[in-house]
Amino acid sequence: MAKVIVGITGNEKELPAMSGLKYVTVARDLADGVKKAGGLPIVIPMGNPSLAKDYVAMVDKLILSGGQHVDPRFYGEDRTIDSDDYLLARDEFEIALIKEAIRQQKPIFAVCRGMQLLNVALGGSLRQEVSGHWQKDLRGTSHGLKVKPHSRVSQLFGQGSQINSFHHQSIKQLAPGLVATAHDPRDGTIEAFESQGALALLGIQWHPEFLCQNCDQNRLLFDYLVHQL
């Protein structure tokens, strides 16, 4: 049986800093999570939006990975924070991938920034700055989950399941057609959403790739992505 091909959006980083050398990057743990679940991960480098149709046609499912802030122009706002952590070309390319994946009826799994971008691409908005959602250590967890019963997320995570937290922005207005399925019980931040109806969209605010080696729930999330979403 052919493996499920999962496209993962790549970021672009200058390494070393100020060197002028740019690399396509993605967290290895994200690709490893797909491989361990039996899928075949393919990193999609940032490119011209005109390439989105062909890239999406190559894959069975799409992962939107983490990274920079989403430019607020895409939800009709000006920047209200002092930050240079934006990459407009990436926003434009990944929005094109989202629209094409929806057109081709390919499932989308969105992580952290990816979740925020998916919400914006579908007509939602973001809080440009939130506090108390960036933990100090890369490994480990930060807080629990309040999970909506009978949701996709509830098939894998129970009430109080512990997750990590690495984000400075969060969902403000949820896009039409999406339903919030997990929240941070501390302040109500949306930690997961999913689509209604036949179209398979699942977004989570935490980084399961940093937890799946030592957490069965997050490991099974990759199994769900590859075999069921």
From TrEMBL:
Coiled coil spans: none
Keywords for the protein's UniProt record, in alphabetical order: Hydrolase
GO molecular function: hydrolase activity
InterPro entries noted in UniProt: Class_I_gatase-like, Peptidase_C26, PuuD-like
Signal sequence range: none
Pfam families tied to this protein: Peptidase_C26
SUPFAM superfamilies xrefs: Class I glutamine amidotransferase-like
Domain of life: Bacteria
Protein name as catalogued: Gamma-glutamyl-gamma-aminobutyrate hydrolase family protein
